[in-house]
Amino acid sequence: MNKRQVIILWAIAIVLGLAVIAVKLTQKDAALSVTNRAPGQTLFEKFPAADITSVVITGAKGSVTLTRKDGKWVVAEREDYPANAGYVNEFIRTLDELKVTRGMEAGPSFAPRFGMDEKAAKAEDRGLTAVFKDASGKELTTVSLGKNIESGADASPLGGGGAVGRYIRNHADESGFYAVSEMFPSISDEPSRWLADDFFSLEKIKSISLGKINSKETEWKITRDTEEAEFKIVDGAPDEVFDTNANSPLKSLFSYARFNDVLPADKVADRAEADKKRDAAIETFEGFTYTLTITPAKPAAAAAEGDAAAPPSEEVLLTVSVAAALPKERKKEEGEKEEDAKAKDAAFTERLKSLTEKLEKEKALEGRTFLVAKSTVDPLIRERSQILTKAQPPAPADPNAGSVQQLPGGIIATPPPAQSAATPPIEAVTPPIAVPPLEENAAEE
Q1: Average pLDDT of the segment spanning 45-66
Q2: Any idea where the domains of the chain sit in the sequence?
Q3: Which of 5, 49, 74, 291 is the most exposed place for a label (fewest CB within 10 A)?
Q4: d(CA 364, CA 82)
């Protein structure tokens, strides 16, 4: 092969290489241009987070409307009950910063394939659609959340892939659908899932009284003198004693209570068994008084269908009103030092501030009807016979039982049994003892 042929072959190789590079670059540009947003870019070029004052989320179960009023998020379907602001703000922030991991060129008609079929009845096929609006009601943007993206790799030794992301669609971008790594686990079309979880918290309970069913009469009342003491029944019969097993649950009543939902006023009558309601009153050592109305709830399905034979519900309806007589100043102790007084005054002021804020928050919950688990109030709604026991008389002393004495060396000495009147006493007889005569008497003898 001569020099000229070698040069020609090298020229051909270079031309072919440049052609391959050009084809690859063309394919890459084509791949990047199938959707408006490329991997690594944010889903929105500019998300209008600051202008959003309303979010409507619709799914297979229904819809929920979150509205910002006076700077606070509320749930419209629950008569503007406070929403969990953390959930709402996190949803908006996530969409603002959300980045694309993959784009798929497809028109809006392909939405059912990605789990965004707005006509579907099943949640996994329907997905969720969120519409964001401004203060004037103008629609700013709409987003659909579709199926989860499952990993092909086994997520555990037992097998089965795990979800690694979710399909999403920006309705203003018709170039395709996108895969993102965010799962959006807290987003729901159920209003109850968006409610703020602030609730009544009863601390340092002093007394509890329970009313009879549909009556103003008191079923029972218990009280205690200090926070460490046990409860005692008030106006109990001489032979009635408060069951010690009931003390602990009542001391911590409502300490960590949560509610399942808040019923709108027009739904209360449908869920309440009004002929079985009863009242309760609880006082605390810090001056709070809670008045509770507890009503058994009908099962949701039975209430909707009017089925009287449905099994009993595991929930109750609860309304609470609260009042407090908070001290204005600390009661001074006799002989306390000046530095101790300053420290105690500072602690008193801080605690008074905390209690005042607590009262303000709990007053805001008055007038609402909460749906709570029956187990939350079970320790409270017990009949008198369930919290009292009969006093046991002391066991009679055994007349034959004597005291036991331990002698040195570990020997146990048991006294002889007591003798009855019919048994003659045992007498100890000592034989006579002869005394020897004196020496001088002996000499005379």
Answers
A1: 96
A2: 49-194, 205-329+350-390
A3: 5
A4: 10
- How far, rounded to the nearest angstrom, does the alpha carbon of residue 431 sit from its chain's CA centroid? 89
Residue in 172, 152, 174 with CA at minimum distance from that of residue 103: 174
CB atoms under 10 Å from CB of 208, counted, come to 23
Minimum mean pLDDT among 267-271, 343-347, 406-410: which range? Answer: 406-410
| Integer Cα distance of 370 and 320 in angstroms | 9
Q: Is 208 helix (H, G, I), strand (E, B) or coil?
A: strand
Q: Which residues contact 185 (CB under 8 A, 6 or more apart)?
A: none
One-letter amino acid at 317 equals L
Q: Count CA atoms closer than 13 A to 328's CA, side-chain side.
A: 0
pLDDT at site 217:
94
Closest CA to 87 of 98, 74, 77: 74
Amino acid letter, 193? R
The average pLDDT across 301-312 equals 57
CA distances from 274 to 220, 228, 271, 317, 418 (A): 21, 37, 9, 10, 67
Q: How many CA atoms lie within 13 A of 110 on its CB side?
A: 13
CB neighbours of residue 354 within 10 Å:
10
Q: Which two tokens stand for residue 444?
A: 């005379």
Give me the amino acid identity at 149.
Answer: I
DSSP 126-195: H-EEEEEE-TT--EEEEEEEEEEEEPSS-SSTT----EEEEEEEETT-TTEEEEES---TT--S-GGGGB
